[in-house]
């Protein structure tokens, strides 16, 4: 066996063992368990295709913006959308394309739910076909479960029929497609995407899936190389046997026939062709192996960064939780202090209200008592005024009767009255003076009596009543 092949085979085994890590093998860690779509997890979408304008248009329609990576809540679900750069006809190297592709997938944690491949509603050109071939070459056939082809229409009147070439390409990606025109509702697209999620039961295309596919491809290269090496060994062995036979014939003096020479020539050409294919395959294998090492190392670094980021987020959430708990405790303490203060204020207000009610009750009782006394005084004053009025009326009645008598006497004794007129007038004046003096005396006595029993308001009332009585007199 070729020593160089042994060395290369040993290196292949090292690469294989290098790839057989928990994060890259088929065993999923708890952090990468299949998500439950029913729990309303974030929907991760990757928009891909060769036409950047069409990709931006779809991104704008879905997220109402054209950022390279945008998060927005649409149709009741949080959506993360990433635009994948073109894979074909790009100035980037193969390694940079692989690195960029892996980075786009790693942005969608825990993985990509749906790839939206944008193509125009027209016969596919060579660039579109090459882009789709690159997409399937890099992501492998595993992408077929997660891809939906969006056929962009310029107007709603375009036909929904596809030509054979376009339909064949769509079938190679699983057959899921959707016509997307200027007036097409995004909700219709979202319904189809939700249907895909249900069919896939929440399975995602993760960086783990990406690396597993490339590891499988690398193992296939190794297996093919082993087969080529085995075939090459058999051909070389047969070639040595043929050379030995030719040498024996030459020694025996028997020359080769034209048929044998032609056969030997074809055999040597085949050996040269196989050597050339083997060298080309070895170059591809070495390139793929180097690229895989780079991708795996970068993924490890990304996982370390992700782990550190999660630790930082956990520490930050823990600190936030502690701050919130402290704020909550402070708030509860403030609430208790405030409740205690309000309770004390309430007790003080109740005590003040009770004292005020007691004072008000006493004041009301005093006011009521004074009102009763005043009402009694007013009633007494009215009684006195009524009696006084009766006396005045009685006096007026008597005076009237006396005047009548006097008039009668005057008629009867006109002459006597004439003689006694002066005497009578004097007597009347005297009597009026006596009445007035008596009335003044009674008034003074009444005034003294009222002043001793009533307050100033009653005195005013008595004074008014007395003034009225004087006027009546």
Write the topology of this structure.
Blueprint: H1 3-19, E1 43-48, H2 52-63, E2 69-74, E3 77-83, H3 94-107, E4 114-120, H4 126-139, E5 147-152, H5 164-172, E6 177-180, H6 186-200, H7 207-252, H8 258-412, H9 414-453, H10 456-472
Parallel strand pairs: 1-3, 1-4, 4-5, 5-6
Antiparallel strand pairs: 2-3
What are the defining features of this structure?
72% helix, 6-stranded mixed beta sheet, G_AIG1, disordered N terminus, single chain, Rossmann fold, 6 strands, AIG1-type G domain-containing protein, 473 residues, alpha/beta, P-loop_NTPase, nucleotide-binding
Your description of this structure?
Helix 3 runs parallel beside helix 8 and helix 7 runs antiparallel to helix 8. The chain has a 6-stranded mixed beta sheet, with helices on both faces. It contains 10 helices and 6 strands; from the N terminus they run αβαββαβαβαβααααα. It is rod-shaped and about 210 Å long. Helices cover 72% and strands 8% of the residues. Strand 5, helix 5 and strand 6 form a beta-alpha-beta unit. Among the domains are: 169 residues, P-loop containing nucleotide triphosphate hydrolases (Rossmann fold), CATH 3.40.50; 61 residues. With 473 residues, it is α/β, with parallel strands linked by helices.
């Amino acid at each position: 066996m070729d020593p160089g092949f042994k060395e290369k085979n040993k290196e292949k085994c090292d690469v294989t063992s290098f790839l057989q890590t928990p994060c890259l093998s088929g065993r999923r860690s708890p952090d990468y368990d299949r998500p439950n779509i029913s729990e309303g997890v974030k929907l991760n979408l990757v928009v891909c295709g060769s036409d950047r304008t069409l990709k931006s248009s779809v991104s704008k329609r879905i997220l109402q913006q054209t950022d390279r990576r945008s998060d927005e809540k649409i149709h009741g679900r949080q959506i993360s959308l990433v635009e994948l750069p073109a894979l074909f006809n790009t100035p980037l190297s193969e390694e940079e394309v692989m690195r960029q592709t892996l980075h786009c997938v790693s942005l969608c944690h825990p993985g990509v739910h749906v790839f939206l491949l944008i193509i125009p509603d027209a016969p596919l050109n060579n660039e579109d076909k090459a882009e789709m071939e690159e997409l399937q070459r890099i992501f492998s056939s595993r992408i077929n479960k997660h891809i939906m082809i969006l056929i962009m229409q310029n107007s709603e009147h375009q036909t929904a029929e596809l030509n054979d070439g376009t339909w064949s390409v769509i079938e190679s990606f699983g057959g899921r497609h959707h016509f997307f025109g200027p007036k097409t509702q995004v909700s219709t697209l979202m319904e189809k995407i939700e249907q895909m999620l249900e069919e896939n039961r929440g399975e995602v295309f993760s960086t783990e899936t990406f690396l597993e596919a490339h590891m499988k491809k690398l193992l296939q290269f190794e297996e093919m190389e082993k087969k080529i090496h085995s075939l090459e060994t058999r051909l070389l062995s047969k070639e040595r046997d043929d050379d030995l036979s030719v040498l024996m014939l030459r020694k025996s003096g028997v020359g080769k026939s034209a048929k044998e020479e032609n056969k030997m020539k074809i055999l040597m050409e085949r050996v040269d062709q196989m050597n050339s294919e083997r060298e080309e395959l070895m170059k591809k294998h070495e390139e793929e192996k180097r690229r895989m090492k780079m991708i795996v190392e970068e993924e490890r670094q990304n996982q370390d960064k992700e782990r550190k980021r999660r630790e930082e987020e956990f520490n930050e959430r823990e600190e936030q939780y502690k701050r919130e708990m402290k704020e909550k405790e402070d708030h509860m303490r403030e609430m208790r202090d405030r409740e205690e203060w309000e309770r004390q204020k309430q007790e003080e207000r109740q005590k003040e209200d009770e004292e005020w009610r007691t004072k008000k009750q006493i004041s009301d009782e005093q006011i009521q008592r004074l009102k009763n006394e005043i009402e009694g005084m007013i009633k007494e004053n009215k009684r006195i005024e009524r009696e006084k009025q009766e006396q005045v009326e009685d006096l007026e009645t008597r005076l009237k009767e006396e005047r009548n008598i006097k008039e009668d006497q005057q008629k009867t004794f006109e002459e006597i009255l004439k003689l006694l007129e002066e005497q009578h007038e004097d007597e009347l004046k005297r009597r009026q003076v006596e009445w007035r003096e008596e009335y003044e005396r009674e008034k003074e006595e009444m005034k003294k009596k009222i002043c001793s029993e009533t307050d100033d308001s009653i005195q005013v009332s008595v004074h008014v009543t007395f003034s009225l009585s004087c006027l009546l007199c």
